[in-house]
Amino acid sequence: MRPSAVRLLNILVPVKRAVDYAVKIRVNPEQTGIDLNVKHSMVPVEEAVRIRERLKDAVKSIKVVTIGPPKSSETLRTALAMGADAAIHVEIPESAPSPEPLGVAKALKAIIERQPDGVDIVIMGKQAIDDDAGQTGQMLAGLMGWAQATFASKVDVDAAQKVAHVTREIDGGLEEVRCRLPLVVTTDLRLNEPRYASLPNIMKAKKKPFEKLTPVDLGVDFAPRLETIRVTEPPKRVGGGKVETVDQLLAKLKEAGITARRA
């Protein structure tokens, strides 16, 4: 009896055109959000490409998706040049607010359900540097009823067994979890160092499939559920002072209105 063929893996990588992680974040003059007139980058597709390189022929496709204004297509083109096979752009107006995590998770769920070959692994950033929410991956896993591994610093996939061993960054150390596919992974910056897209790959990316959708196509409403009242920078830290004796320390504490309690 001939053994059944192993189904090849399909990987979906949500990416976001966000402020580059090396840029110092500043609040805009209107105090409605952060200043976006700076260098932008994306959550890299690097790990998906490395998984395919490690597993050879076990990965059938790597598809990238982004939700954003027309200029977000540049982000997808870069991801295609880095090694992704196809892209999906859910386009929203330039003036529209950035979709909230729940809206993004619902849109990703709709996209997954549209894929004829299904999706086995979703690899996305743990949080975007602009809203810093860190919620989308967890919400997507909850909506899909899938396993999830967050804050990943290492991902090893066993295509034959349909499992993944993920090393997670936790307070005070590392944790390794074993997850069955399908799986949502949110990645930490220490996971890898993204490659640069070569000129030949940039040219090849122009011929790769590129699908454009709207929120209406997905049956998703991106209307904000939250209202941002004001965004402000934290107060500047003031320098500390040194004291020579315990008596001076107690006097300083008393001046600050801090009283000591007896045990």
Question: Any overview of this molecule?
Answer:
The structure is a single chain. The chain is an alpha/beta fold. It has a single domain, classed as Rossmann fold (3-Layer(aba) Sandwich), CATH 3.40.50.620. The chain has seven helices and eleven strands. Strands 9-8-7-10-6-1-4-5-11 form a nine-stranded mixed sheet, with helices on both faces. Strands 2-3 form a two-stranded antiparallel sheet. The N and C termini lie far apart (78 Å). 33% of the residues are buried.
Characteristic key phrases:
Probable electron transfer flavoprotein subunit beta; two-stranded antiparallel sheet; Rossmann fold; nine-stranded mixed β-sheet; ETF_beta_N; alpha/beta; 263 residues; electron transport; 27% strand; electron transfer activity
Mind sketching the topology for me?
Elements: E1 9-14, E2 17-19, E3 40-42, H1 46-55, E4 59-68, H2 73-82, E5 86-91, H3 101-114, E6 121-125, H4 136-144, E7 147-158, E8 163-170, E9 173-180, E10 183-187, H5 199-205, E11 210-213, H6 215-218, H7 246-255
Parallel strand pairs: 1-4, 1-6, 4-5, 5-11, 6-10, 7-10
Antiparallel strand pairs: 2-3, 7-8, 8-9
Helix pairs in contact: 2-5, 3-4
Cofactor: AMP; FAD
GO molecular function, one term: electron transfer activity
Keywords: Electron transport, Mitochondrion, Transport
